[in-house]
Amino acid sequence: MPNSTNNVKYHVSPDLKSRALGAYLGLAVGDALGAPIEFLTKREIAHRGGHKEMTGGGWLKLKPGQVTDDTEMSLYLGRAWIEAGGWNANTAATQFAEWLKHYPIDVGNTCRRGIRRFMLDGSLHGVESEADGGNGAAMRILPIALATYGDDSAFEIAAIEQAHITHYSPLSDAATLTLGRMVHVLLAGQGIESCLTLVNNLIARHPQFRYFPYPGRASGYIVDTMQTVMHQFFSTNNFEDCVVATVNCGEDADTTGAIVGMLAGALYGVSAIPQRWLDKLDTKVKTEIEYQTNELMKGVIK
Ligand code: MN
Ligand code: MN
User: Distance of alpha carbon 79 from its chain centroid, rounded?
Assistant: First the structure.
């Protein structure tokens, strides 16, 4: 099993609130950084001299620092938890429907199909399908991980139910659970070793996720997404390098960026996120992220 911790030094923030806020802002920053180069290849990005600033643009014609569905779905899921005062799958699906009604700038096909199904018949999941193996359920797991910190069974129920509203796939489920649990161990300050244990357990159960040697794909297929995220997360030693290396793999760059930004933010803490990136993020998004982090972790952080 890969273990890249031997020669890499990690600078770990000691403070729980810094890690929780780092995870949420890291998610948004990774999304906004990657979105302008979504669907480019690694080679095309390199040919342009690489990408490490909040440029905006891309196929969605984004403003610099603008976030996309990855951050938005997370925020709507967080709102559902806060509104219901706990986990309620119907409230979550209703929030996803609210989001879809607000003409989001970008919606994945599987997400759209699942939300439409709920809007038509009120059902909270479809049938298991290999076509649901995209990264759309995994990319929005953070609010559930924050709200269930310290309670793994509550986490597992909410994580799976939120996932199945749009994605009913064993590989998506396994990745979604692993990412949420990685956030939990990082929030607890257990660092990279505990993350490696979780990832190695995932690979033991689903060998498709093996990322060493790195296969080099970064598409929206959950296996490609996870391989890119794991490869970069375990082979870099600070927030900026981690997120830059990840989005420069191209393809689903906003989503790999969002997921790795979440993990790196939880590991290195909010102060490790480059200020020049935070400055570009929409103030409304930043404000809601701070509000949700406090609400979702009420009783855990002050
Ligand atoms: Mn996106
Ligand atoms: Mn994406």
Answer: 16
